[in-house]
Amino acid sequence: MITPIAVAFAVCLLGWVYQALKPSPPKICGSENGPPVTSPRIKLNDGRHLAYREFGVPKEEAQYKIIMCHGYNSSKDMFLPASQEFIDELKICIVLYDRAGYGESDPYPARSVKSEAFDIQELADKLHLGTKFYVIGCSMGACGIWSCLKFIPHRLLGASLVVPFGNFWWPSVPSALSLRAFRKLPRSYQQTFQIAHYTPWLYHWWKTQKWSPTLGVDGMFCDSDAEILKRLSGGLNHNPEKVTQQGEDESLNRDILTILGEKWEFDPITDVSNPFPDNSGSVHLWQGYEDRVVAYEFNRFIAEKLPWIQYHEVPDGGHLMIHDAEKFEAIIRALLAR
């Protein structure tokens, strides 16, 4: 009698473990029982759709065309603090898009740092933005800009990495520096990132368990970030309910696993070259000294190793500096300067 009970218990336990480790299927926009499609989208060559939003003057009238990559837990509907006077002065058109799995863009289980560059390239081609364009990436969205610098530098007029989030396990970064930056994070972040890197198959379970915190926001924002949140009433996106509407596994979790859980196809320090040796364009890295998400020492080291990057360290800047009007305008002007 004991053996059948033990077998039944083991089967039930294995079933529970399987369910706990298995991600939920995404609710794809436009599918039966999925969220509706409410934004313009392009169809990529592999059949996926990317949703996008145009901000600024119409692209047909724009003097400068910029593609912007949003960060973690954000979307194409991120708040951009540009005045109409500023937009009209520079005649800029910014195209923001939902990265795969976010908002209304189709999930992409094979998403990688490398694939981000080719999504951007196809977006530019489908929207007829020209043979060359500018790119900006914020936080985790900046990983796509590193990818552009590596794989499609011939398509770029300029690039900006704003508070770029990197991989603590890049071989070119001294382990002591990576560890120091890593230990500045809250313990819950350290645990979550370690699970993503060393045991990615456990990540879904870890993010859904209730007994230990994972990636909360408490204590992660400096004074200038808090002021921005207060000014925006805590809303950094116009439609926050849409950010993860297709499920967290193909948006938030896929972001972490792609950037921290997998080995990149390249190392930004050793494998990326200056795309503008003739000074026809420029690459910028913006880092807040007060940033509590990305330690300034980490990105300062990268800029020192890549002297062709123009490094801007903002003394009172935090992780949300792109949502500050003065800093946003400075980022854009520096990118477009000749």
Percent in strands: 5-15%
Uncertain parts: 4-20
Summed over residues and divided by their number, the pLDDT gives a mean of 92
Main β-sheet, spatial strand arrangement: 1-2-4-3-5-6-7-8
User: SSE order in H/E notation?
Assistant: HEEEHEHEHEHHHHHHEHEH
**Helix content range:** 25-40%
In one word, what is the shape? globular
The radius of gyration over CA amounts to 21 Å
> Structural class given helices, strands, pairing?
alpha/beta
Seen as an oligomer or otherwise, the chain set is single chain
Largest sheet, strands/sense/barrel: 8 strands, mixed
Compose a concise summary of this entry.
By secondary structure, the chain is of the alpha/beta class. 36% of the residues lie in helices and 14% in strands.
Descriptive report:
36% of the residues lie in helices and 14% in strands. It has 338 residues and is α/β, with parallel strands linked by helices. The protein has an eight-stranded mixed β-sheet, sandwiched between helices. α4 links the parallel β5 (133-138) and β6. The chain is globular and about 75 Å long. The termini are far apart.
Features of this protein?
about 350 residues; alpha/beta; 8-stranded mixed beta sheet; about 35% helix; about 15% strand
Map the helices and strands.
Blueprint: H1 2-21, E1 41-43, E2 49-56, E3 64-69, H2 84-90, E4 92-97, H3 113-126, E5 133-138, H4 142-151, E6 156-162, H5 175-182, H6 187-198, H7 203-208, H8 223-231, H9 252-259, H10 268-271, E7 283-288, H11 296-305, E8 309-314, H12 325-336
Parallel strand pairs: 3-4, 3-5, 5-6, 6-7, 7-8
Antiparallel strand pairs: 1-2, 2-4
Helix pairs in contact: 3-4
